């Protein structure tokens, strides 16, 4: 995805103009018409996460400018989020009880590169794979058609 488009999308998420689809961990997630863009019904507006990603994208753009790359031609090649170890605190409850109060941080891996102008689909057209069994069945039916 283009870096400028990603920044525009995250700004729209912050302003609740576009929603982020929740496909996997979607228990209790409400439905919204903005999810139709992604062919699903459940979506939310994770403002805090969007702000963190916007900071990362801004940092990546600054790094690209420092390396004298074209900022308008940047593309997000790879992005990945992993769980980080939980940070533990305590919360004090009624009747002298103590419960854990944990944060859920994450590691975000982001690779941004300059888009190649020659980046065109030069792949050969896909050939439909046929199993041995279907090849034998087709050969037998072709022989029957000849007789």
Automatic annotation (TrEMBL):
Query: Which Gene3D superfamilies would you find in this protein's record?
Result: Ribosomal protein L22/L17
What are the BP-aspect GO terms? cytoplasmic translation
From which residue to which does any coiled coil extend? 50-77
Q: Which GO terms describe its molecular function?
A: structural constituent of ribosome
Does the keyword field hold Magnesium?
no
List cellular component terms (GO).
cytosolic large ribosomal subunit
Family annotation (InterPro entries): Ribosomal_uL22 (IPR001063), Ribosomal_uL22_CS (IPR018260), Ribosomal_uL22_euk/arc (IPR005721), Ribosomal_uL22_sf (IPR036394)
Keywords, A to Z?
Coiled coil, Ribonucleoprotein, Ribosomal protein
Q: Cite the PROSITE patterns for this sequence.
A: RIBOSOMAL_L22
Q: Which family does it belong to?
A: Belongs to the universal ribosomal protein uL22 family.
Can you say what this protein is called?
Answer: Ribosomal protein L22/L17
Q: Specify the species.
A: Catenaria anguillulae PL171
């Amino acid at each position: 995805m283009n870096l400028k488009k990603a920044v525009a999308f995250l700004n729209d998420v912050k302003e609740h103009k576009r929603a982020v689809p929740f496909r996997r961990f979607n228990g209790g997630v409400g439905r919204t018409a903005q999810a139709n863009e992604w062919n699903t019904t459940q979506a939310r507006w994770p403002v805090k996460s969007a702000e963190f990603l916007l900071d990362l994208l801004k940092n990546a753009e600054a790094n690209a400018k420092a390396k004298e790359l074209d900022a308008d031609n940047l593309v997000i090649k790879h992005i990945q989020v992993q769980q980080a170890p939980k940070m533990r605190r305590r919360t004090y409850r009624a009747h002298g009880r103590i419960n854990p109060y944990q944060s859920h941080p994450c590691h975000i891996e982001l690779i941004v590169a300059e888009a190649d102008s020659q980046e065109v689909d030069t792949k050969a057209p896909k050939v439909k794979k046929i199993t041995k069994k279907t090849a034998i069945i087709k050969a037998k039916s072709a022989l029957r058609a000849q007789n």
